[in-house]
Amino acid sequence: MTAALEELYQQLIVDHSRRPRNFRKLEPAERSLEGFNPLCGDRVRVYVNLDGDRIREASFEGCGCAICTASASLMTDSVKGRHLAEVERLFEAFHKLVTGGSPAAETELGKLAAFGAVAAYPARVKCATLPWHTLRAALAGSRQSVSTE
Amino acid sequence: MSALASVTLRLPPVSGYDPWRVRADFPALRQRVHGRPLVYLDNAATTQKPQPVLDALLGFYARDCANVHRGLHALSERASRAYEDARAAAARFLNAAPQEIIFTGGATEAINLAAQSFGRANLRAGDEILISALEHHSNIVPWQMLAEQTGARLRVAPIDDRGEIILEGFERLLSARTRLVAVAHVSNALGTVNPVEQITRLAHASGARVLVDGAQAAPHLKVDVRALGCDFYAFSGHKLYGPTGIGVLYGKSELLESMPPYQGGGDMIRSVTFEKTLYNDPPHRFEAGTPPIAGAIGLAAAIEYVEGLGLEAVARHEHELLAAATAALERIPGLRIIGAARRKAAVLSFVIEGVHPHDVATILDQEGVAVRAGHHCAQPVMERFGLPATTRASFALYNTCEDVDRLARALRRVREIFL
User: Fold this and answer.
1) Of A38, A68, B64, B275, which is least surrounded by CB within 10 A?
2) What CATH number has the domain spanning A3-139?
3) What is the pLDDT of residues B219-230, one digit of tens each?
4) What is the dihedral of CA A11, A17, A19, A21, to 10 degrees?
């Protein structure tokens, strides 16, 4: 196997894709929204409960490929307990990471840094970002499902 | 692989067809991808181009580039002759007459042309269009649009678990209301070869016209529109080793004569005044504006190339590959082949338990093996089998047993990563 491939499908990502954390419906959920990638068929529903402007709980259902599932799993883990402004900063750092711009502060990303290899696979960037776009739209109060196209 | 094994594989098969010699005609196949020799198995999406096609395109642009049917100069005469020769080549390829061949941008445009010209002139509210559950989106959406425009209704013949059209189900849906049947010759998602001759007979018996979407069939089977009896036949150049941007709609002469234009513009007219425009005869009536001249010339070169190898020999070779690949993939634990039609073209759709097709395709790509993953523009087919997507390996005349081997080995890597 090539080194690039080993990095993309490193243990952490494979593990989260096979045993996703927070993989359940939240009932009741203050915010819930579906995101869809019409090109590949990945579909994710993100659920969020808030404490003021802090995320108390986040979970998801659906998804498709390993990258998307692992991204949703690690995202819901990472945003729990965070202020909305922090979540936004985290998204920006993550987005920079997977699109090839070096993230502002890699330390801030924690386990999310595992997705750095995605930048080498332009076709897979949307797999990694779909859960994030869906989460942000849900937090912004959107009721319209999110599409990557 | 040992040198000995590789020598053994390179021996021409008993049939006399030598894919190794054929490969040498395709410059794109000589490259390495991610450090490995390219194994191109995405042929149902598009095929690579042989040198004679590249030469024909370059020859046109380098020497004969002019518009057709207009200029009274040498270059235009050469271009016009080459363009009409291409029409004759396409006609011969389908066993049709040249005036029955309309050049389009591709199979999709060919189907849209039939829908908008024949369909809008002949369908009324209450009429029905009958398609199958195997269709590519390009043989669904144009009919949905037509149904919306005319008030006609779209009906869908069911398929069974093998991925074959259920003929009794098809017959049940066929009625005096059915004005048009549109069906794929070969399914792009599963490889099923549909009994289009029988379907055409049944449709004609109940008074319906028949369009066959041959995008996946033309590269793999000898197509004879007279023997099939269909009214329209559509295919694309780029899936037949020709350039992109060229396709063919065959239509029976008497039908084309009666059909209104598809688009308005130059070349499709006999005379234009602001009061009244007289339309040209088929096929020119349906080719408004400057046609895809280079594309048609490239397609003719591709047709000559394939005819030179012999479509029967190509089909035999591809069936050997399909059988070898089916056997090799069936031995991979957790892998399930989707589509078990009794007649199949060289398409192998499959899923691996616990691994998403996109991850399979990414890993295969890193091994130098190009396949497609997704819904293959056939979402209803995926839904029928309860799958969001499959991985699809599709074979062409230049693939070899070694390609099958590389595919199988790369698929074992997939399991190593995920299990």
Assistant:
1) B275
2) 3.90.1010.10
3) 999 999 999 999
4) 110
